[in-house]
Specification:
Length: 179
Amino acid sequence: MWLIVPVLLFSSSLVASKVFTACELAQKLNDRFTDQITKGLASREEVSKYYTDIPLLVCIAGYHNFSTSNVVVTDDRVAHNGIFGIVPHDLKGDPALLLDDNIDLDVKTFLEKVLYVAGSLYRNENNRNFYDKLCTYPEVEYVSCYLNNYVFGRYRVPIPLNPNLLYKTYQNRTIEVPW
């Protein structure tokens, strides 16, 4: 059993959240990775790998309702915050930053802590295989997006047919389930 908790944050100022469409998010990720190369913030090798992750990132965000303010608390009281469901202890910094409309930290943390082995360009195959299974047929449908001025259509991204499926697969870490 899990719980989706709507979050309203108050601090010195109100934190704004955003709900993306799948295509908006694909465009945002593409622009972010392009900016990282042009500003010299990341290597070409690093960013070229990240470009291929855009459809998977969009799908994972779909399991979190494309919402930057999404919070899911599982039975064992683990919170999964933001558009990618990041567990706060994996974050360097204030967990509230996962719930605002700026997804830069969310993307960086999810790539570095979940999809890749920290500090390297080696894929974390266990995590990736888990999400790949949730982000392929028959669990998804595909939409075509405009990505940029050169990929102006037919850029396919998967959208979960059942956004609740991700957390329905959640298994409490202390319970062994027969295979």
